[in-house]
Amino acid sequence: MQLFFEEEINGEVFTLDAQESNHLCKVLRKNIGDTVLFTNGKGSLFTCIIEDNNPKKCKLKIVEQLFTPVEKSHIHLAIAPTKNMDRMEWMLEKMTEVGFDEITFLKTAHIERSNIKLDRLHKKLVSACKQSFKTWLPVLNPITDYEKFITDASFHSHERFIAYVDKDNDTHLIKQASPNQSYLVLIGPEGDFSPNEISAAINNGFKPCSLGKHRLRTETAGLVAVHTLNLLNLEQ
To answer: Where in the chain is the domain with CATH 2.40.240.20?
Structure first.
């Protein structure tokens, strides 16, 4: 059964905006009395009945609500955006399917892009949640200065890692992370982090880690980090 998304669901009855109403009632041809599933992206799954299939203001009644608690682990990826945002969108889609909780884009020394269209990325996250039937929408943070981010004291309770390519940095992430933790992983741009950025992260409590023997593209590295932490917690 298809999953739909509506962030603001309050009370027993709610009304969709014109765009979503048109999609549900005209494009998908849903009728009065049809059952549809909605999530608010905050862990709830609503079973709803269409009471009014007006294509401009479709009205639905909630008949059942189920709640999925958050996972014990929390995966936060902090990554420098690529010049081609299609690659970041692909990464977000795949990471959502695999499972992650939060992403922050970083302004680094070798950054390729400083302008991020958060609205477009938000839509990609919503679409991926609907496609993979997930009821928790990952948190999407605005682009942040690297130095400010790595010194944020609110991350001190996380297991913190910085992934970069170096012959002396050969201990894989999966061998360093512990199960059921909050994780924060830094991923650099195509030109990698600068030596000063690596030193600054390590001095602020981030552990160097490898994501494998081969050099990875930025979006591949992000996906590999998320997948690795999911594998670590698979049977926990």
So the answer is: 3-67
- The pLDDT of residue 235 is 64
Which residue type, as a one-letter code, is found at position 54? N
Kindly report the backbone phi and psi dihedral angles of residue 112, in degrees, each rounded to the nearest multiple of 5, phi listed first: -100, -15
> In this structure, which topology does domain 3-67 adopt according to CATH?
Ribosomal Protein L25; Chain P (2.40.240)
* CA 188 to each of CA 10, 64, 216, 228: distance values in angstroms, whole numbers, following the listed order: 40, 44, 11, 17
| 195-220: average pLDDT | 94
Q: Which residue pairs from 16-21 have beta carbons closer than 8 angstroms and sit at least 24 positions apart in sequence?
A: 16/57, 16/58, 16/59, 16/60, 17/57, 18/55, 18/56, 18/57, 20/58, 21/54, 21/55, 21/56, 21/57, 21/58
Tokens describing residue 42: 């905050």
Question: In which band, very low, low, confident or very high, does the pLDDT at 170 lie, cut at 50, 70 and 90?
Answer: confident
Q: CB within 8 A of 74, min separation 6: which ones?
A: 101, 102, 158, 181, 182, 183
